[in-house]
Amino acid sequence: MREFWLRAGLFIACLSFVLVGACGGESSKGPDARLIAGGGAGDGAIDEVLHVHVINGLAGTPITGASVRVGLSSDAAPLVGTTDTAGLASFKDGKLKGPQTVTVTATGFAAATWVGANAANLTIPLEATQTAPPETAKSSGTIQGWDTRPAPADGHLLLAYVGYSFIEPFDAPDNSIVQDNITVIGLTLPANICYKATLGTNTESKCEWQLKTRIGRQALWAVMIDVDTKKTVDRADDTYSVVDYAFLLDQEAAAGHTYTSLSLVAVGANGMTDATVAFQAAPTGMASVAGLPMIKMGDLGNIVLIFSPFGPGKLTQKVPALSGVLTTGTYDFLAMAKASDTAAYPQSTIWKHGVALGGTVDFGAWQAPPTALAATSGTYSFTPVAQASLHTVKLYQSGTSGTTVAWNIGLLDGSTSFTLPSLSPNPLPVGTITMRVDALKVGAFDPADFSVDVLAPDATAHSADVLGFTR
């Protein structure tokens, strides 16, 4: 079930809102240039003056030398320019009135087009075409009291999966660090576990977990699960129940360093509470449904309990109570429906923010995905989601070396059909390309006045589908 979330990218790129940027010279008319942290738009409608900061969407740093085009794809004489060392470009032109289409390219980054932008100040985050592996650290240790825990029943496994708190955006490479593997009674399992296994009268036990982590401040955590293997090698018939959780907060990890002899402290029965969720019927074509609790711990990151999901057959289970070391935390709950455990699209995700435990977490109605995706002769179109606040489109190519993102499109004016401008070189690769359309529902979204950093806390639903085409 953990793979359900990792393969689905639970941690949806739409929240990063990867859009675009611009060029020119300073003007005495209109507002002063202003960088909006993380990306966004503001300071009134475009009226002859347009300021654009272009930043690295992951690092938040300025991008120097970005090539910028302002104008429709059909414009014979668009405004063009280049960003300066501050990542800033400013235009002054009498024809700059109202919504504009802005396209940006920069070496090492996917092209981006922002359709219907109508704010005098834009800060546009760009996405790297291919993301470099994150810097990592290594930690190892045990769980306090593991050796004195009762052995599981015959044919059962007691597993403790150890993880680290995630950063935002959730699709950041830091949250997808691949762990080493070990073999336990014929099973290939990640090295970030402790285990007790009973077969007949024999019990094996070991709690020397090894974990690759991101760098920086974080929380380490573990979920302990009793797995009934049914004494078969078929993992599909396994059932499990949560036994306990353990934590070690506020660890500081430096790149390349190894931290040993760490000990996670279990919360025990008094440190857990029941959580119950309710799912409505998923949209057509989405047969796999799961829910996930997440503890937000401020600067320490988010403890995403990916090893203990809810599902239609598991509506109630134990979760950590917000007491002891977790007193300052808050709960979010997420639910995702998708085609299958291994097929990411179509998909639909629901967020419940600031959940108070004690009642049923009712996820409510699912948001249907965009439909009728089409890519014909350079024109892209789809049928939108009526309740969505914003639609975005991503064009990318998958290969043996990973995914290469080619172009991101933000549709701020409600467009459902668009044509991209001709650029040289063409950002779109030759071959099979995937078009993904994302629909995001946000509490109070104003396309002319928003900050990317506050979109995620306000987002309540997301859905997406994909189309493959050949160029």
Note down, in words, how this protein is organized.
The protein is an all-beta fold and 471 residues long. It has two domains: 2-12 and 132-362, no CATH class; 19-126 and 368-470, Immunoglobulin-like (Sandwich). 3% of the residues lie in helices and 49% in strands. It is built from two helices and 33 strands. The strands form six sheets. The protein has a twelve-stranded mixed beta sheet. Strands 14-13-10-16-17-18-9-15 form an eight-stranded mixed beta sheet, with no helix packed on it. Strands 5-2-8-1-32 form a five-stranded mixed beta sheet. 44% of the residues are buried.
Outline the fold blueprint.
Layout: H1 2-8, E1 40-42, E2 47-56, E3 67-70, E4 79-82, E5 88-97, E6 100-105, E7 111-117, E8 121-126, E9 137-143, E10 156-164, E11 181-184, E12 187-190, E13 193-199, E14 202-206, E15 209-213, E16 216-228, E17 239-253, E18 258-266, E19 272-278, E20 288-296, E21 302-304, E22 316-320, E23 330-338, E24 347-355, E25 360-362, E26 371-376, E27 379-383, E28 390-399, E29 402-411, E30 417-419, E31 432-442, E32 450-451, H2 452-458, E33 459-470
Parallel strand pairs: 2-8, 7-29, 9-18, 19-25
Antiparallel strand pairs: 1-8, 1-32, 2-5, 3-4, 3-6, 6-7, 9-15, 10-13, 10-16, 11-12, 13-14, 16-17, 17-18, 19-22, 20-21, 20-23, 23-24, 24-33, 26-27, 27-30, 28-29, 28-31, 31-33
